[in-house]
Design brief:
Elements lengths: L2 H26 L34 E10 L2 E14 L4 E10 L1 H7 L2 E9 L5 E10 L2 E10 L4 E7 L6 E6 L7 H9 L11 E8 L2 E17 L3 E11 L11 E7 L6 E8 L2 E11 L12
Antiparallel strand pairs: 1-2, 1-14, 2-3, 3-4, 4-5, 5-6, 6-7, 7-8, 9-10, 10-11, 11-12, 12-13, 13-14
């Protein structure tokens, strides 16, 4: 292999990893990172626990569309988008689906067609079942999890396809979440009742492993959302682990609307080889009027 061919192959590999990280962010808005257990300074009056939180922010029929951009050699490029929808599954549960895909102009390079679906309790917002189908380049995955909280277990059926999937049971925390339920859980935190700098712990089950996470409340500010204008926002962050793509002090920063809806407005991730941004593109059927928008 020539030096130029090697450099080109490495560049393509890095670009694919950037796009992969982009779609993790775009589809879920949070990156699961293992953290060291530290004392939690959660205000006792915050009014929520990982086991239960009251839904005050979204309703069935809500649709959110996000667009992803990544920076390569000082050029910002749009790679794809995701659409999140909330449905009434029955009187006791919501069904939430998130579909992410690359634009057709990128499919020749690295085609992504991911789908996440979770059923959550309307009373607690804990998940009962979640599944995802992943098509990323040549990679394929079928992943279904049933949560048996009475047994403190997650029953995983996972493989390259549904036909090839194997079943295993894992012991988990009684208040564990999946990626989708975690997003809608944190949308319902009352950030007016916690202090700036508060670390909020949660357990996440993904890829047949339980992750201990902390999301940090960073305060409030006004931000400019690409193509949408200025919004009053709540700022959140979490640390990421070092490695080939991450600098030692890299972090994911998330901004949600500072109103009753708490819609994810923007996500930022700095990588060692580039940057990723996810922006709110459109919203429909919000539970409340979007009052976080700053008028011109």
């Amino acid at each position: 292999m020539t030096t130029n061919t090697f450099k080109q192959t490495k560049t393509f590999s890095f670009l694919k990893k950037i796009i992969y990280c982009s779609f993790i962010l775009m589809s879920c808005s949070f990156i699961p990172i293992k953290t060291v257990e530290t004392p939690v300074d959660l205000d006792e009056n915050a009014g929520f626990t990982p086991c239960k939180i009251k839904n005050t922010t979204f309703k069935a029929g809500e649709v959110l569309t996000h667009k992803v951009f990544y920076n390569w050699n000082f050029v910002w490029m749009s790679a794809g988008e995701s659409v999140s929808k909330v449905y009434n599954r029955n009187s006791k549960e919501y069904k939430i689906g998130i579909r992410g895909k690359t634009y057709s102009s990128y499919d020749w390079f690295y085609r992504v067609r991911d789908y996440f679906e979770t059923t959550i309790s309307k009373e607690t917002l804990r998940p009962s079942t979640c599944y995802r189908t992943v098509e990323e380049g040549r990679y394929r995955l079928y992943d279904k999890v049933d949560f048996a909280f009475d047994k403190q277990q997650a029953i995983s059926v996972r493989g390259k396809s549904k036909k090839e999937a194997t079943k295993r049971a894992f012991d988990v925390d009684n208040c564990v979440h999946d990626m989708v339920s975690m997003i809608y859980y944190f949308r319902n935190v009352n950030y007016n009742r916690i202090k700036k700098g508060t670390n909020m712990p949660i357990s996440l089950f993904m890829d047949r492993e339980e992750w201990k996470l902390q999301l940090r409340y960073e305060g409030k500010e006004t931000i400019n959302v690409r193509g949408k204008g200025k919004y009053k926002a709540i700022k959140l962050s979490t640390r990421v682990s070092a490695g080939e793509l991450f600098d030692k002090n890299s972090s994911v920063t998330i901004w949600v609307s500072d109103d009753k809806n708490k819609v994810p407005l923007q996500v930022k991730l700095e990588l060692s080889i580039g940057s990723v941004r996810v922006y709110l593109k459109d919203y429909k059927n919000l539970r409340y009027p979007m009052t976080a928008k700053v008028e011109k």
